[in-house]
């Protein structure tokens, strides 16, 4: 087991299986099929992201460097939470961008019964260490345990 310390963007505790991308995460392209067309498995629909394409994101610990793409990114995260089609948590190696942060914070404040903890600034070492299928546990203080 290895631990990493990051900055808490939205609080919470969760344990989930990791899905990892070394590429930027395009929120709209990745989640559009689930949000607009009813994909219940919430499979990543971004064909440009070879790490995640076709993999289920629902209830997973999404490990990523940063988000990329449309200015709708924050709204997409908020909608995914409100529709209960969100990852269990978002774990950023880098600083979170303002749009993703806004969507995560709004979901945390406005969506009852859904928790999607978000931790950023975990560093490149985190992203190089974690692999698909590893067990991730997030603590309230921003500690991320990887097993």
Concise summary:
This protein has helices at 27-37, 73-82, 98-110, 124-129; strands at 2-5, 7-10, 14-20, 25-26, 61-64, 67-68, 89-92, 118-120, 135-138, 143-146. The chain is of the alpha/beta class. It has a single domain, classed as Glucose Oxidase, domain 1, CATH 3.50.30.10.
Give a description of the structure.
The protein has helices at residues 27-37, 73-82, 98-110, 124-129; strands at residues 2-5, 7-10, 14-20, 25-26, 61-64, 67-68, 89-92, 118-120, 135-138, 143-146. It is an alpha/beta fold and 147 residues long. It has a single domain, classed as Glucose Oxidase, domain 1. An 8-stranded mixed beta sheet has the order 1-10-9-3-5-7-8-2. The model has no long low-confidence stretch (mean pLDDT 97).
The run of helices and strands is EEEEHEEHEHEHEE
What is the CA-CA span between the terminal residues?
A: 5 Å
Largest sheet descriptor? 8 strands, mixed
Global shape: globular
Structural class: alpha/beta
The number of strands is 10
| Share of β-strand residues | 25-35%
What is the CATH top level name? Alpha Beta
Give the % helix: 25-40%
Oligomerization status of the protein chains: single chain
CATH homologous superfamily grouping: Phosphohistidine domain
CATH architecture descriptor text: 3-Layer(bba) Sandwich
């Amino acid at each position: 087991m290895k631990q990493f310390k990051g900055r808490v963007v939205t609080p919470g505790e969760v344990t989930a299986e990791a899905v990892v991308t070394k590429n930027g995460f395009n929120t709209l392209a990745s989640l559009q099929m689930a949000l607009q067309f009813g994909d219940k498995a919430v499979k990543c629909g971004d064909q440009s992201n070879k790490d995640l394409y076709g993999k289920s994101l629902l209830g997973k610990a999404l490990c990523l460097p940063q988000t990329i793409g449309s200015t709708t990114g924050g709204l997409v995260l908020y909608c995914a939470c409100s529709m209960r089609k969100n990852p269990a948590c978002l774990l950023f190696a880098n600083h979170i961008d303002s749009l993703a942060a806004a969507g995560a914070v709004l979901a945390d404040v406005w969506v009852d019964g859904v928790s999607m903890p978000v931790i950023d600034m975990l560093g490149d070492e985190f992203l190089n260490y974690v692999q698909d299928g590893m067990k991730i546990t997030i603590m309230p203080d921003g500690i991320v345990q990887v097993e």
